[in-house]
Amino acid sequence: MYSLILLNGGIGERVGAHQPKQLLKLRGIPILVYALVQADRIDQITQIVLNYPSGWRDAVEEVLDDYAIGTPVTLVEAGDSRHASVAAMLPHCTETDVILHEAARPLVTREDFEGLIADERPNVALMSPIPFTVAPVDPETHEVTGSLDRSRLRNVQLPQKFALADLVAAHEIAARSGRIYTEDATLVADSGRPVHFIEGSDMNLKVTTPTDLRMAAFLLRPQGDADV
Ligand SMILES: C[C@](O)(CO)[C@H](O)COP(=O)(O)O
Questions:
Q1: Are 3 and 93 in contact (CB under 8 A)?
Q2: What Gene3D superfamilies does its record include (predicted)?
Q3: Cα-to-centroid distance, 65 and ligand 1 (Å)
């Protein structure tokens, strides 16, 4: 069984809205709700640990009530970074395995969660191939500093799953080193514990910018609406 850590603590600065992006509505439904509803339908997820941006607890509680989420939810205030938020949510997990997801990926499917759960390895993340070229650069001088073999790179997605003990131990190592990670698959891999990946879909869009919002609204259009 799994505790779901659902990251919902960002303020969504890059979307430029007057409220956290995960509370904005897409097709009339708050972005957060799409992931919540999918997770609520998965029997193996017995607890949802959900964080909220400082000052937005009431708004998040209202969403939970409005959409009658049945899985028990533990609310935790967000930390200063995504990394700090995960660290603060870990002690609230009641199961021995955790799934991490983020509210900003509303196109997550039941199959995404089930694929992770069906995998017998303890630490597994969805990742997708990089369909473009990523160059290492010096951001100060704007100089290209080398080249990367994209067949050896993957776009890290969520959801991801971990043995709770591995994730806790990896966060302890990261805290000692002082390094702040942008996500947890690389954090756990750097701790020396094996992390595997399975193919994620490019439909599992992360809503970061106003353009992403428009793309997500399009992808979430009701079945039967005309394609472009
Ligand atoms: C976690 C993540 O979505 C992996 O692709 C990404 O790193 C999040 O980036 P953000 O800058 O925290 O939105």
A1: yes
A2: Spore Coat Polysaccharide Biosynthesis Protein SpsA, Chain A (3.90.550.10)
A3: 28
Q: What is the pLDDT along the chain (228 residues), one digit of tens a residue?
A: 999 999 999 887 777 778 899 999 999 999 999 999 999 999 999 999 999 999 999 999 999 999 999 999 999 999 999 999 999 999 999 999 999 999 999 999 999 999 999 999 999 999 999 999 999 999 999 999 999 999 999 999 999 999 999 999 999 999 999 999 999 999 999 999 999 999 999 999 999 999 999 999 999 988 766 555
Which CATH number describes the domain made up of 2-219? 3.90.550.10
Tokens standing for residue 88? 């603060």
List strands edge to edge, sheet with 2-7. 73-77, 45-52, 2-7, 97-102, 154-163, 124-129, 196-199
User: Angle 110-118/31-40 helices, nearest 10 degrees?
Assistant: 50
Tokens found for residue 35 = 């992931």
Q: State the closest ligand 1 atom to the C-alpha of 208, by its place in the atom list counted from 1.
A: 13
Residues with CB under 6 A from ligand 1: 82, 102, 156-158, 182-183, 206, 208
